[in-house]
Hints:
Number of strands: 12
Strand content: 5-15%
CATH topology: Rossmann fold
Structural class: alpha/beta
Mean pLDDT: 85
Bound molecules: NADP nicotinamide-adenine-dinucleotide phosphate
Radius of gyration: 20 Å
CATH architecture: 3-Layer(aba) Sandwich
Number of domains: 1
Amino acid sequence: MNIFPYKETKFSPTTRVQRGYNSNAKLLYNFFYFCNMILLTGGTGLVGSHLLFELASGGRKVRALKREGSNTATVRRLFSWYDPQQGDELFDNIQWVDGDVNDIVSLQECMVNVEYIYHCAAMVSFLPEDRQTMMKVNVEGTANLVNVALLNNIKKLCHCSSVAALGSPQKGNKVTESLVWKTSSKHSWYALSKYGSEREVWRASEEGLNVVIVNPTVVIGPGDPGRSSAQLYQSVKNGMKFYTSGVTGFVDARDVAISMVKLMESDIVNKRFIITSQDLSYKELFAYFAHFSGTRPPKYKAGRFLSEMAWRAEKVRSFVTGQKPLLSKETARNANVKRYFSNKKVRNALQMEFRPISEAAENTSRFFKKYPVYLSPDFRMPS
Ligand SMILES: NC(=O)c1ccc[n+]([C@@H]2O[C@H](COP(=O)([O-])OP(=O)(O)OC[C@H]3O[C@@H](n4cnc5c(N)ncnc54)[C@H](OP(=O)(O)O)[C@@H]3O)[C@@H](O)[C@H]2O)c1
């Protein structure tokens, strides 16, 4: 039995082309969800902002947890990008509340009248100096959230994990949901933090919380250009010269949002799903970005040797200048790994197809053409 039926929205392939939507239907929908307050964490981030739009444009009542001083300007722009007529109004309907996943009192306060939770807040970093904070936000923060959710009898929680939290396949095989994680020195601290946070969610499910977990590959879409995977597009646009030999999965941010809502609004519980569209080499991804932004694609291949040299050189530069390194050992090594992913489980469960990454790259590029990024002269993108 469905908790409530999935409603087609602006992101849905079937309704994407339709402009506007029936206001009576919207009213009815608001009434239907009057008691179902949804809480979302990480709403200012790439994944969370797309999910916020998917929820808000479907007429759902959403409360978004943000940290004090967090900037919501990109989210407003994103809403106007996806819905030029009603984006501002939809954005204003969101109930923003200040809080932090490491502040239990704030979590308790923001869960009043909440029935469903989407958890997208996390720190995404591969820099050694961020390790401690990342473990605190991702693992301890998730533990706090699920503990307060259990206390508040939350009906269901959808956790945004990552394929970094999955095990590795035998050579030549694709990554699937059933692979068992094995401790290894090859895992990045980000992967350890995502694995640790997933364990907290599984623990909560054992204690009675209904959960569903998504494990997206690299998410492509418009967002804050200085953070998470949104940096990739800006790097190419700013004339990045090198590409690495790695292959990985990519997915459109809109499809991550659709999958999360569909999974939440289904009767599926205590399962996890890889959310991915296509496996591409970084060279192929950068070629899309270059094509749509009108720049030259990176020309030189940075193989393992060059990447190893580059992160060491960055470490020295960072030590001498006191600036954050643009490349870490973990990023350099990950960028040369070839991993392939299966999306069979989610396609079967939700009967959904994923947009090709060329579409995600075009969407990202068109957004930044409309809302150009003005970076300070000191700001340097990874090269
Ligand atoms: N992007 C990808 O390619 C990708 C791929 C797979 C999985 N994921 C997962 O998707 C989720 C979202 O990632 P993203 O790419 O959207 O990252 P993002 O753009 O960096 O956004 C991170 C979000 O987390 C919030 N946050 C950070 N620390 C917090 C804290 N202590 N308390 C409350 N909120 C906090 C940030 O809020 P502020 O505005 O206050 O900083 C921001 O809204 C993460 O779990 C990530 O692991 C991402």
